[in-house]
Automatic annotation (TrEMBL):
Residues 6-77 form the GST N-terminal domain. It holds the Pfam family GST_N_3. Keywords: Transferase. This is Glutathione S-transferase. One of its GO terms (molecular function) is transferase activity. It comes from SAR86 cluster bacterium.
Amino acid sequence: MSEITLYGSPLSLYTGKARSYLIKSRLSYREVLPNSPHFEEAVLPEMGGRRSIPTVETATGEVIRDGSAIIDHYESLNDNLFSPRTAKQNIICKLFDVIGMEGLLRPAMHYRWNFDDFNREFIQFHFESFVPPNLDKQEMAAQRMNQMRDAGRGFGAIPETFPLVESLYCDLLPKLNSHFATHPYLLGNRPCIGDFGLIAPLYGHLGRDPKPLSLMQSQAICLFRWVERMNRPEADLGEFSDQHDSYLDEDKVPDTLVEVLRHVAKDFVPETTAACCAINGWLQEQEDLDPYTPAERGVGMCTFTVEGQSITALAQPYRFFLLKRVQDYYLSLTLPEQADVDSLLNACDMTKIMQLTLNRGIGRLRNREVWL
Ligand SMILES: N[C@@H](CCC(=O)N[C@@H](CS)C(=O)NCC(=O)O)C(=O)O
């Protein structure tokens, strides 16, 4: 085996993160759907009992399930090429990774599943393409689509919350657009791990499904260009005068990004607070949760309020698996660096997320996130 095989799909949210990383790293890979006999026989048994994409088979035949684990693997071989070395930029980079993976699921699911007139045929085509030959494509696709529609509700996108989900997203678009009008990537002229996290919802769903794609193309041209740029190996800096391939000097975090984070904080902070409380409550009730027990995708629901609207959503341990990277990095900083980060997070209305920790750690064992 000489190249990487990426098991994924163009419409998959999480595949977008790993794909973009492989492209930007100029790693040679081929992307295939997870529906071949080889996948079932050789790859699936190595995935720790969870069938999810993205999963890769490395050039040496190792199977890695989970987008963050895939990136960790190649980043460690790559001298952490896509992690800024300075305090504020590194915190912001890691924070955008959490936001991308967990913080935009409501708009991503809403704009896919609640606009049938625009999206239905497009989505159905892709769900049918997952089904191996000789099986009933229509029926199996319909079953899977129903499950995913339900998952969208589970993330809190229900009729009562649609107006809020839409207004938050429609206000986010111009803020992201202003940022990408002046900077090609989040932190300058080079993508960081945060860009790879953020591309997950903004490519497979929000930058590709017909309804949200039309919104992005008509209302946020520079954001759309970033989505394209994230899927190209070259830096693709055409419209910018500065062509250097580097992060901004002097640990600068642009005001445009602070504005984006202040907006994201409106639901990211209350949701993270409520999820933390729900998961810690659940942990307390588990009398015999042995170390290395798999951490399931959700451990119950949590309820929080955003702009007067109550939202109930799945409480997901994975959010805290990634958030801990932000918190651990903060603890590794010097006191003056921590002070700089404190003022930055304060300006972003994100201070609180540094205190939100679970009572049990989460690690990885044999391709699963596990309770430590
Ligand atoms: N934490 C995983 C999540 C992967 C994930 O949930 N992928 C979706 C497709 S976008 C999937 O395979 N869902 C099927 C399932 O979880 O059963 C990652 O970041 O790779």
